Structure formats: C-alpha cells, structure tokens
Amino acid sequence: MTRMDGTGQVERDQLEGPVLRAGLLGHVPHGFFTRLGGVSTGPYASLNCSVRSGDDPAALRENRARVARAVGVVPENLLGVTQVHGSDVISVDTPWEEGQGARADAMVCARPGLALGVITADCAPVLFADARGHVVGAAHAGWRGAAAGVLEATVAAMCALGCRAGDIRAIVGPCIARDSYEVGDDMRDAVLALDGAAGAFFAPARRQGHYQFDLPGFCVERLRGAGVGQARALGVDTLTDEARFFSHRRRTLAGGGKIGHQISVITRPHV
Length: 271
What we know:
By secondary structure, the chain is α+β, with helices and mostly antiparallel strands. The protein has helices at about 55-70, 145-150, 150-160, 185-195, 215-225, 250-255; strands spanning about 1-5, 10, 20, 30-35, 80, 90, 105-110, 115-120, 125-130, 135-140, 170, 180-185, 200-205, 210-215, 230-235, 260-265.
C-alpha cells in the first residue's frame, strides 16, 4: 500500500507476510509482528511473545530472540513492561531481565540498541518515532488506556527526551476494527466519562443498546490532539484475520481457552 506523507513523498507500507511495517516510520527499525514465524505450538502457534501466556518458556525465548534479531538488537535487549491498561510511561536507558518490566503501558527511549516491545491481541499497538529517529516510543492502547491518556503521556515523555510533538510520527498497528468491536452501554459510558468527545467513535450496532467502537480511529484522534505531526492507522483487523493474528475477542466468541499474543517493536537506529 502506498500513501503520500505530509511532504509529498510516497510512503510504502508492508502489510503482507509475517511482519508488517509502516512507511511513515522510514528508516527506523520496527515491526508489527504477526503470529507467524515462531516455534510455539497449539493455541500459541507460532510466534507467541507473551511471557505470561502459559506457553513453553523455551519456545518463548526462541520466539522473542527471532523478533529481536529481526530489528537488529540482541535478544536480551528486547524489552517489555507489565501492561495494566493504564496510562503510565517509563523512559528506558538500560535493559532489565525478561518479565521484570515495570507496571506501565508505554516506553520511550533515546538510546540505540534497545528495542521496545508491546504485546497485544486486539488492543492497539502504537509505535512512535521523531523525524530524525533519535527518540522512539511504543504504547499498548486498549480502550481504557487510550481514554485515560496513555498516548498523550507517551508523546510528553518523548518530548522530555528532546524532541518536539510536531516532529513525532505515530502508527496505530493491527488491532480490532470498528466492524468487529461490538460493545455495550457500560463500556461506552466509561469512555465518555473520560473523553466527552469520544461519541463520534461509537456507531449503533444491530443489537439494541450496543455500539461498534472504532478503537484505531479513536487512537489516531487522541494522537492528533496531542500535537503529533503525523498519525494514522494501518487498518488491519486482528479479529477477522485468524491466520495471522491472535484475538481475545475471537477467543471469547469461541468459548474461551488459551491464547498467544503478537508483539510490536521499535528501536532507535544507530545514526
């Protein structure tokens, strides 16, 4: 897929295959990884990257090592936080042991050689980079985190490391799409309580008292409101593409069970 960026240059997205990449992020090493290309089996097949999923630890280590090598870092420098559907962001300058990340939902970094990874299975992974690629960020944005301000907090944390909001480019990766995401009055009311302008992202569903929620559109709007220079969504639905993506909603509709998670990663290039 090709698009024109804000300068009139053509950007090319890679939306096929086991790793998706956004032209908007240019030379910054990154990837929205699918469930393809790993060694896990059963419900975790095959590139499950969640250390809390119950998968075989040896398979997880190999899967995460493959992801790390794909973005040019050593496996021990692929970092993740303990995601809690909140708005906390940490600034990263040194690695930690796998599974020992702080309770937060986003990371920012200005040091080359460290990769920031967020785990999702319908929530929105959002990758950030300033125009020079000197500061990068990664956020996990479900509806709770997005409404609570995790994306704005990520932008602010990147600016604290020396970039301007207007120079930041942000991509909302594969997540559940509006037509797949039916929600009830309770969820809509919770979002509106945090963001009174969010009503535009709820369309009536077929069932009375239910709505179709546009999570990627909501995230893009919040990013633009934070002053990000360029923000958009890849437009890939995790629920309908069972071959390439894990999906919590798909699992729920099927009656539950174990599930893997895909990972989205970004790292500052060596410049």
